[in-house]
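Summarise what follows for lecture notes:
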Amino acid sequence: MSEEEYSNLYVTSDTHFGHNKEFLYGKRGYQNPEEMNQDMIRIINETVGENGILLHLGDFCLNTSLEQYETIMFQLKVKAVWMLWGNHNNPIQKSYGGSVHQIAGSIRGTMVRYLHHYFTFRKGRKTFVCFHFPIHSWDGMSDGGMHLCGHSHGTLPISRPENKTHKILDCGWDVHGKPLSFKEVEAIMDTKDVNNLHHP
């Protein structure tokens, strides 16, 4: 990954665009799914920006048609979206049966790269392991490798930002309310002590 990509990379998960259950949008302080959608789009555009890349760790949307999905993507004024699959499959995943890996395309000008389920990358000596689900053991774990996940909506204590014992972070919307820059990710991970790991 280039320095330019890394400096413009942001991460989030579990936006659940279009999720029409009050327990989700109501808990976030919205009156309906459309209000939630529009505010999340605004926050993403303001945070990530036109030169930014949004790494999304799954559960991008729910209860959306392909046309609705494309409308949401069209409103994201970012350079690119890198997307992993979650457990609530978006219409693109359904179209390909979840079997595709590393495909890319453009949705009305927004470049979208689909990374399948699991994505790892290194920046210098730092290892990042990205997966929708929190896992117990990951590549480079004992050497400070960082695991970025979602899925639990902040309910899993070990992946919360304030947990100091493992370099794992729930990057979900319900934890942070916005995408995180990788400077923010690293700052959180720096508070976690790899020496406290309990290996399987």
Remarks:
- The first helix runs from residue 3 to 7.
- Helices lie at 3-7, 22-25, 33-48, 66-75, 91-96, 173-176, 182-189.
- The longest strand covers residues 118-123.
